[in-house]
Amino acid sequence: MQQSLSALEKKAIKLALCENWAEAIATNKELLDLDPTNLQAKIRLGRAYLLSKDFRNASKMFKAVLEQDPINQIAKKNYELAKSKSAKVAINSGAVIKEPGTSEEVKAEVISKSKIWERLAKGQTFSMRILKTKTLLIHSSKEIAQIGGPMALKIYLHTKEGAKVSAQYIGQSNETKNCVDILLKADRPIFKQEKQDVRPYMKKGSIEEHEIEVDSFDDE
């Protein structure tokens, strides 16, 4: 059963990324038959219904998610979209999370004084140089921003295991000076929030400085 669940999970994620909604609906329903409490399968199924314009079932599925997890922001957002029958708005605005765990909005510190940011359009994709303690964003062969902290380490570890991660420009940050908003996308759910990933009191220097210089690679 465990092997079947694992295989179905991978198939469901692939179908969602390929936007094959008919098969995605069937696969996630099959997953839920085997594991009725699978929250991610419910979210995927709700989204597949929503983008198939089956608003009734989409609303029903996201409501079920909220009954199981009342503070789930993905379900809340999509439940409102389903109730308002706004699949078109969802697609155009990106309000529907493409696949739980495969995308994450982060802030990147600007390290280039160039006016290049004024010329960048939303959705611009960057090349990336991935190190243990930071991920450098590259445009026109210049390093222009960096992502640090636990997210940088997460990107490093998962890409070493074969994950493909891309970075897209969202816009100037309205909250943090000298930062820009970046959308990270992965070909697998590497951004799932887990309790052990939350470390608000991580000590400075817990990741050795010399690690920046070893085992680094370019993803260009």
UniProtKB/TrEMBL annotation:
The keyword Isomerase does not apply. PROSITE patterns: TPR. Pfam families: TPR_19. The keyword Disulfide bond does not apply. TPR repeats lie at residues 39-72. Transmembrane segments: none annotated. This is Tetratricopeptide repeat protein. Keywords: TPR repeat.
